[in-house]
Amino acid sequence: MHQARLVGAEDFAGTCPVPFELVARLSRAEPDTLAALLDGIPEAIRANLAVWLYGRSHTHALGVWIAATCRPERLNEAAGDLVGTMLHDLSRRTYAAPDHGTRPVTGRRISLGGSGLQASAL
Segment Disordered: which positions (predicted)? Predict the structure, then answer.
């Protein structure tokens, strides 16, 4: 049986380019104060942070927003040419949150119940 576990500050150690406390402040910040929080962070670190945040579903939008503060060259250095370019392009568009499969079902419905045959009929 799998159990969900809470994400703690120790999960950020070694992989996140900024301290956990800063990520927490950024994720809670209003758009007008977010820019002020990012002002003191060098662009190379912002690019790494944008890539790191973009890679997590719950911070995806924040990663795109931070990517918009970076030049494409920095994003390419942080994530490689393909991902860096894609993230840069995405950050220049009007953001639409991912729907994660919540679109209305259209067309044929899929049932996990099988074909409808009774087990005794097999």
Answer: 97-122
What is the CA angle 74-33-10, rounded to 5?
Answer: 65
Q: Are 67 and 88 in contact (CB under 8 A)?
A: yes
How far apart (Å, rounded) are the C-alpha atoms in residues 78 and 121?
59
Annotate 108-120 with three-state secondary structure: CCCCCCCCCCCHH
For residue 5, name the pLDDT band (cuts at 50, 70, 90): very low
Q: DSSP letters along 55-115, please?
A: TSGGGHHHHHHHHTTS-HHHHHHHH-HHHHHHHHHHHTSPP----TT-SPP-SS---TT-S
Q: What is the pLDDT of residues 40-96, one digit of tens each?
A: 899 999 999 999 999 888 888 999 999 999 999 999 999 999 999 999 999 998 866
